[in-house]
Specification:
This protein is α/β, with parallel strands linked by helices. The chain folds into three domains: 93 residues, Elongation Factor Tu (Ef-tu), domain 3 (Beta Barrel), CATH 2.40.30; 106 residues, NADPH-cytochrome p450 Reductase, Chain A, domain 3 (Up-down Bundle); 162 residues, Nucleotide-binding domain of ferredoxin-NADP reductase (FNR) module (Rossmann fold), CATH 3.40.50. Helix content is 34%, strand content 20%. The chain contains 14 helices and 15 strands. The strands form five sheets. A five-stranded parallel beta sheet has the order 13-12-11-14-15, sandwiched between helices. A three-stranded antiparallel beta sheet has the order 1-2-7. A hairpin with a 6-residue loop joins strand 8 and strand 9. The longest helix has 16 residues. The protein is globular, with a radius of gyration of 24 Å. The chain starts with a strand and ends with a strand. The protein binds flavin-adenine dinucleotide and NADP nicotinamide-adenine-dinucleotide phosphate. The site of NADP nicotinamide-adenine-dinucleotide phosphate (NAP) has 25 residues, from strand 12, helix 11, strand 14, helix 13 and strand 15. NADP nicotinamide-adenine-dinucleotide phosphate (NAP) binds next to strand 12, helix 11, strand 14, helix 13 and strand 15.
Length: 380
């Protein structure tokens, strides 16, 4: 697919960069709001150069890979390719080696002290390339069949589509959060493979991707007669931007809509309030009520979305009473559990004699009825 637009969504210098990408869909490819784009990334050129050096391989060497035995997770190539192409497009280079991979490296290392050191490694924070770099005797010690057994095929990454086909059926938009932090190995900076790749794309570039339908439960029906409560932090806003656009289009076509409230957590209004202008225009048109929470500039007790839900307990409870469906999207490790806790607290506050167990059962009931759905993920 061809990238047609790319720009940062965060203010210049913001430490957690987020980027907008618009991608043209090939003829005949369609999508629905909240679907995902599954992207096959490419490893960064400097990492590929490092990996080739650590393997003792010339990047321009041409390999003709033919499977000798059936293997479900084999690297899928059907033509001769250079070492550079193999390392760029076909294998993971930043994963930490498994116990099996470490054992294979130890067995192949001709240097006894290095072999002994490799054999004792457990739960090591270094990536495969870093371990190869730290054991120079491995350079050239593995032949290509052994290396191909060792390297894992590149995994596609999923990104929520942030646009609506009601606005433009021929393009999909993404909001991508760059995973970048001091490396756990203590060596330099770790930059995520998929998010790092998408950050480098410019208009005119090609991205290998396909549209993947989301589970039906994640879809938000713009014209439903019951209210909707959307809860997101950071790029978790993606499917809700599409849902708000659907509602704006339905309003413009004369539909009468049930209320929609969007809780959105970010750092600061002028730093990373993603698509703020567009969303404020949609709010002015009556398509959504925006409820941001700013973690760097908290208002009273409200730092995260769950705090704002707690602060607006009466309104949220009334929406639930009117049959509201709740959708939560984004960070699954910290935000989603916090939001669940906020809803359980809401129930306890409004239900005499309710304890933690009955609150838990109430939330489980909402989930079982499809009235509380989470499209969440934990990276890092
Ligand atoms: C359904 C779905 C929808 C999604 N939608 C979006 C979206 O709209 N926008 C978005 O930005 N993301 C989205 N994601 C997340 C996205 O798919 C990727 O997981 C994310 O971009 C990180 O992938 P990466 O390839 O950059 O990181 P990877 O290269 O895969 O790195 C992740 C790995 O690195 C490790 N790691 C993390 N930090 C460090 C460190 N400091 N040092 C060493 N290792 C480290 C982690 O433990 C993890 O194993 C979605 C995920 C799912 C499942
Ligand atoms: N469908 C999906 O599965 C999906 C879709 C999109 C994104 N994602 C994933 O979701 C994650 C979101 O990352 P991001 O980089 O976009 O967001 P982010 O910028 O890291 O965080 C957004 C906001 O959430 C706040 N936050 C921190 N801890 C919180 C907590 N315990 N509860 C509630 N809010 C909290 C942050 O505050 P602080 O500044 O204080 O940290 C910040 O204001 C990523 O892992 C991304 O890959 C998944």
């Amino acid at each position: 697919m061809r990238v047609t637009e790319a720009h940062d969504l965060t203010a210049p210098g913001h430490p957690r960069r987020k980027r907008f990408l618009r991608v043209a869909l090939p003829d005949g490819v369609t999508y629905r709001t909240a679907d995902h784009l599954t992207v096959l990334p490419a490893n960064a050129p400097d990492l590929v150069t490092r990996a080739a050096a650590a393997l003792g391989a010339d990047p321009d060497t041409v390999l003709d890979i033919r499977p000798t035995r059936p293997r479900g997770d084999a690297i899928a190539v059907d033509r001769p390719l250079t070492v550079r192409e193999l390392l760029t497009h076909h294998v993971e280079l930043q994963e930490r080696p498994t116990a099996g991979q470490l054992a294979a490296l130890a067995a192949a290392d001709p240097c006894p002290p290095e072999r002994a050191a490799l054999a004792t490694l457990t739960d090591d924070p270094r990536t495969l390339v870093e371990i190869l770099e730290d054991h120079p005797a491995l350079r050239g010690a593995l032949d290509w069949p052994a290396l191909l057994d060792l390297l894992t095929p590149l995994r596609p990454r999923h990104y929520s589509i942030s646009s609506s086909p009601a606005v433009d059926p021929g393009h999909v938009d993404l909001m991508v959060s760059l995973l970048q932090a001091p490396a756990r190995s203590g060596r330099g900076v770790y930059r995520g493979t998929g998010s790092g790749h998408l950050m480098t794309l410019q208009p005119g570039d090609t991205v290998y991707a396909r549209v993947q339908p989301c589970p039906e439960a994640f879809r938000i029906d713009a014209t439903a007669s019951t209210p909707v409560v959307m809860v997101a932090a950071g790029t978790g806003l993606a499917p809700f931007r599409g849902a708000v656009a659907d509602r704006a289009a339905a309003l413009a076509a004369g539909a009468e809509l049930a209320p929609a409230v969007c809780y959105f957590g970010c750092d600061a209004p002028d730093a990373d309030f993603l698509h703020a202008e567009e969303l404020r225009a949609a709010e002015a048109a009556g398509a959504v009520l925006l409820r941001p929470a700013f973690s760097e500039t908290p208002e009273g007790e409200v730092r995260f979305v769950q705090h704002r839900i707690a602060a607006e307990a009466e309104e949220v409870w009334a929406l639930l009473g009117a049959g509201a469906r709740v959708h939560v999207c984004g960070d699954g490790s910290r935000m989603a559990p916090g939001v669940r806790e906020a809803f359980r607290t809401l129930f306890r506050k409004h239900t005499p004699d309710a304890d933690e167990t009955t609150a838990e059962r109430w939330l489980d009931g909402l989930i079982a009825d499809g009235r509380y759905t989470e499209d969440v993920y934990a990276a890092g």
